[in-house]
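Researcher: Please translate sequence to C-alpha cells.
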Amino acid sequence: MVPGALLPIHPPTLDLVLVCLSLQAALALRIQALGHPLERGLRQAGLALLLQAAGLGFGLFLQGRTLPGLLSNLCLALILGGACLLYAALRLFYGRRVGIWIYAASALLTLLAVSLGPDGAEARFGPASLLVGLVALALARECARRTRDEVWPGPRWLCAFLFLFLSLVAIGRSLLPHLVPAGLLRFAALVVYGFLGLGMTLLLAQRLEARQRRFAQSDLLTGLLNRGGFEAYAARVLARARIREQFTSLLLLDVDHFSQIHRAHGHGAGDLVLETLGDLLHQQLRERDGAGRYEGDAFAVLLSETHDSFAPPVAERIRRAVEALEIAWEGHAIPVTVSIGVVGTGESGSDLEVLMQTAGERLARAKAGGRNRVVAV
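Model: Translation complete:
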C-alpha cells in the first residue's frame, strides 16, 4: 500500500480510473444534451467535465517527467476552469441568471492556476487544492438551493453532498496536509466523478417529470394554471397554512363585458385579452403566489402568507393595472377592466370550496355595483 494512500491501489492507477470516470460522466451528459437540445446547462456541463478529464489525463501523462512547471500548472488550469464552467452550467440548468462576472471570475481563477507558485508539484498542490475546494463549495451551495422544477429533493441533495465532500477534503488537504492524506483527496474525486453523471441524470429526469406535470396543469393560452392545477395548488398551500397557522387570501377576477369584446372584435381579440391578462398576473404577483384561469374569462389568485387586510390593496393594484392596459387588435383599441371579489382565511376559514363561494358572491356584487371595482366585505 502506498504511504498516505487511502486505497491499496497504486496512485497512477487511481488517476487513470479518475480520468475514465470523468470521461464517462462527460459522455453521459453530452448524450443527454443531444436528446434535450434546449437544456443548455447539460451541454455546458458535458464540456466542463471534458475539460477536467483533459486536465486529469494531461497530469497523468506528465507524472514522473521532468518538465517546466508551466505545463503542470496548465493541468491545474484545465481542472479548475472546468469546475468554474460546471458552476455556470448548473445555474443555466436551474434557470438562474448567469452574469458575465461568473465567466470573468472563471477566467481569473484559471489564469491564477497557470501562474501558481514555483516549480515543484508540492508547492503548487496546496494553493490548487484550496481553489478547487472553494469552487466545489460554490457548486454544493448551488445544488442545495431549492428549485421549482422539483419532484423530490433527493437528486439535488446527492449532488450537493458530493461537491461538499470534495470541497471539505480539498480545503482540508490545502490547509492541513498532515491530517488529510492525498489518498483521501483521490477517493473524494473518485466518488464525485463516479456519481455525478447519475446525479445529473436524476436531476434531468425529475425536471422533465415536473415539466410534464406543470404542462398537464397549465392553461395553454395564458400560461397560468388551469382549474385542476389551481385547485391542486390551492389545496397544498391551504394545508400548509393550516399547519403553520398562517393567513391566505383568495381573489376571484372576471373580465368585464367579455362577451361584447367577442362580438365586436372576434374570438382572436378575446384570446389576446386573456393572454395579456395572464402576462399581467405573472408580473403583478410574487413567486410564492399562484394564479389560474378558472373558467372562461374568470381567474383565481391565491395570495400565500397574506392577511385578510393586505389582500384588498393587492386586488386594487391589479384592477388599476388592468385598467391601464393598452390592447390593440386590428387597428382598434380594446378597453379592458376587471371586477374582483376578495376573501381571506381569517374570516372564512381555509376550506377552498367555502373561499371560492364567498369570493364568487363578492365578485357578483362587484359586477352588479357597476363593474371595474373590488369588493372585499
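Researcher: Any highlights?
Model: The longest helix spans residues 182-216.
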